[in-house]
Fold:
Amino acid sequence: TLSEEYSLTFEKARENYTLEIPLEDARSEVANYKATLKKIGMVNIESIKEFDRVNERYQFLDHQKSDLLNAQDTLLEIIDEMDEVMKEEFKKTFNQIEKEFETVFRQLFNGGKATLKLTDPDNLLESGVEIIASPPGKKLTTISLLSGGEKTLTAISLLFAILNVRTVPFCLFDEVEAALDEANVDNFGTYLDHYKNKTQFLLITHKKKTMEYAKTLYGITMQESGVSKLVSVKLENK
Structure:
């Protein structure tokens, strides 16, 4: 038994291992140990390698998780900083446009009063903008209660106000003045002169009064059926 189970000879065992408790007690303990080992079952030696492999993978994923959480915190900090910058820039630009809008409105309507109002001043990044306009002879009211022509000219006033605050090199208007009468079209065309040498306008229009303020006219004609032809006319400066 010594040879098969422990690779020991009887003499070697007696020399190296001394029984310090009674023989019967030792046999009882051995029996208990064997019973416990039997309950435990077979030991999987490969599980040590499997643990090392799984633990290495776990450590790698845990490190990746830490990097992602750190990156998330950094991004959230950047977003907060950007939100503050956007709030500051929006408020600054809004105040400039509001002031300019009042001036442009009076010029296009030959009087009256208009202003811009934030629907949620405490939440600038999600707030809407309400347009309050009062053409000459009318009480201050929201733009929804104005006539079609008044709404159009108010919207044009706001657009010009934005262009005055943030000048752009090129702007396209597609029949923006279609709902205006001749007098207001004249006001619209006159105001375009404010942008000489600053902004180039391309106007798509059917209003002859608007065309009087253009430097170059482009039209499409069909002298032959199914054949379109571009016609251009350069107007002399007044």
Remarks:
- The chain has a mean pLDDT of 89.
- The radius of gyration is 44 Å.
